[in-house]
């Protein structure tokens, strides 16, 4: 199993990379046999179908990178030094999670120790981030600027993180620090026309990927979009719903069309 997929543009290339770090579901066998079988069979914290939702992007000239391994193998959007992303008391799953979002233990036995975590960082985390860095630098060299869009989704209600339902869409830019004001405004204003409840940096302001790759002073811009799964999945948030997804895809495509204009 490849660690990730890189989908090259089918249209004229533009300076945008979409990352989907949590859409993978694969477990190496030595890890899978230690995780509770019902959880390994359907890892609920997966960003289900996000890679499908965004599959219009290559025709716009956008490069995509999608992870194949489950975030329960390693979370590609956490600090590899395990510094917490937030300090407001919410549940935050770790770099190598041992529980799901609601605190349910994942492992029947053999919880990873520090040595195994370090090995997983080397085997799974570093290659994904190195590839993003390579893709961004290649586009930056060609265009003089580049945008990384980190694509995520979450159940509408996760009591372990928040006592109320999440907004439909949450645009994160590390409190205005990971992208220029013009890029942020273009994304926010277009998303705000879709008829969805949109929040900005609340309750998510971008994870490690957004924060580490965003350097607007150097024309490296990074945004994260968190999306409630109900907006493209069925009411159980377990199956893809084409009608809902098509509506969301229309808004996302419009957003990227405007971002392309802002960048080129």
UniProtKB/TrEMBL annotation:
One Pfam family named in its UniProt record: FGase
Source species, domain of life: Bacteria
UniProt-recorded name of the protein: N-formylglutamate amidohydrolase
InterPro entries with a match to the protein in the record: N-FG_amidohydro
Species: Flavobacterium silvaticum
